[in-house]
């Protein structure tokens, strides 16, 4: 949990909150797209 807190604090210092939120949303979309693609191949 400490690593996550440090990471979030570091990222917050790099981005404004809005930019950070957008970047995080895009990152989550990329991951979910990859997971969905992997499931499609497995099916």
TrEMBL record:
Protein name in the entry: Uncharacterized protein
Top-level taxon: Bacteria
């Amino acid at each position: 949990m400490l690593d996550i807190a440090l990471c979030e604090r570091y990222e917050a210092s790099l981005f404004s909150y809005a930019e950070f939120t957008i970047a995080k949303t895009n990152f989550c979309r990329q991951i979910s797209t990859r997971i969905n693609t992997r499931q499609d191949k497995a099916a």
